Amino acid sequence: MPPLKRRKTTMLNSETKTDGPLCLLTVISDPGKANAMARFALQNGAQMAYHFYAHGTAPGHLLALLGLSGVRREMITLTVPEDQGNALLEKLCHQFHFDRDMSGIAFLQKMDSDGQKSVAEYAYVMIVAVVNEGDGEYVIESARRCHPVGATILRALGTADHSKKTFDFEIVPQKEVVLIIARICHIDALHQAIYQDLCSDQPGRGILFSLALDRVAGLLDRVPDCAESEETAQDHPETVWEDDRFALFVVAGRGHTSQVMECVEGAGGTGATILHCRLATPESGGWYGRLGDPEKEIVLVIEESEKTRRIREKLEKPSDDPETQPYPVGQLQVVRFNQLSEIRDAP
Q1: Residue 337's closest CA among 143, 199, 140?
Q2: DSSP string covering 159-175, please?
Q3: What does the pLDDT average to over 298-304?
Q4: pTM of the entire predicted model
Q5: Is 71 exposed, middle or buried, given 0-12, 13-18 or 19+ CB atoms closer than 10 A?
Q6: What burial letters (b/e) apply to 229-262, b meaning 16+ CB within 10 Å?
Q7: Is 284 exposed, middle or buried, given 0-12, 13-18 or 19+ CB atoms closer than 10 A?
Q8: CA 46, CA 1: separation in Å to the nearest integer?
Q9: β strands within the chain, DSSP E
């Protein structure tokens, strides 16, 4: 398997006037603990906290241990200066006892990196499936048939070109985003199991991709390590290791995603997934402060590198119009990708 290249990028955060390299620190836990973790992180170096409501699941034989099956979850993604990411994760682990209590899971993703890093240097990956509403459970069932995994499901909206119109009104497809954190040795089996069960010739079925994680702390540490046979197993022959595709995360105000999509489509992009969230900053208040926190939408775009470059140029282009200021954009390299729709030629 060739080395994974991480091309140098920066995340422009126009809301904090920061243009230095950032990393993403994500925490998934129950809503009460997740909010406490976010407040702690914002007081200790995090710049932004994006709150997503989710649904958590866990495999049957782990239920007694984890106590997390079929319950409400909250996912909080923090933007942190890259040189502070590891230290903040350590503080969160110490403050909330990730190593002892069932407090949830946290993982770190660096968006800027010079040089190359081989696949063997990564211990964990995040497998992401964007599917139609109601198909999220099928994704999880498919994954669990080959390995016991927990998962988090987020609600989302689709903007792909297969959207339908009725009476001249566009019907935006409801989507589910399934997140599965797994050890690197399990990525081939999990990815292939999901792909084989979900892939069809139905247009707009969804996409399946994976992102490398730099560090993971929490519940996954209690899952048994990979067997030696799994660590040394050859890659599945049908699985492709991507080297030229990226995930863009664009932050927009609620109701302003149409401008983002104009940039995406103008640069040759074919669709996106929109997730709703609440934004908190170090200046946000406590529980009552949530009422004043602005609502945001994260536009997720997966494209090849050249289209990604053109999209970023359009999104980050300075403007004299205060309504069209440069959008905050984050970029991560996709390490595995599949369309779940196989469009076959007519006989």
Answers
A1: 199
A2: --TT-EEETTEEEPPEE
A3: 95
A4: 0.84
A5: middle
A6: eeeeeeeeeebeebeebbbbbbbbeeeebeebbe
A7: middle
A8: 35
A9: 4-5, 22-29, 48-57, 71-81, 105-110, 116-117, 124-132, 151-158, 164-166, 169-171, 174-183, 206-213, 215-218, 245-253, 273-280, 295-304, 329-339
Average pLDDT over residues 4-9: 43
Taking the C-alpha atoms of residue 274 and residue 297, their distance in angstroms, rounded to an integer, is 6
Largest distance between two CA atoms of the chain = 62
Q: What is the DSSP string of 249-265?
A: EEEEETT-HHHHHHHHH
CA distance 250 to 262: 13
pLDDT in tens, 161-191: 544 444 444 555 899 999 999 988 889 999 9
Task: Give the whole-angstrom CA distance, residue 33 versus residue 163.
Answer: 37
| CA 242/CA 196 separation, integer angstroms | 18
Instruction: Please state, in angstroms and rounded to a whole number, the distance separating the CA atoms of residues 214 and 83.
Output: 13
Q: How far apart (Å, rounded) are the C-alpha atoms in residues 340 and 343? A: 10
Residues 124 and 183 sit within 8 Å (Cβ to Cβ): yes
3-state SS, residue 230:
helix
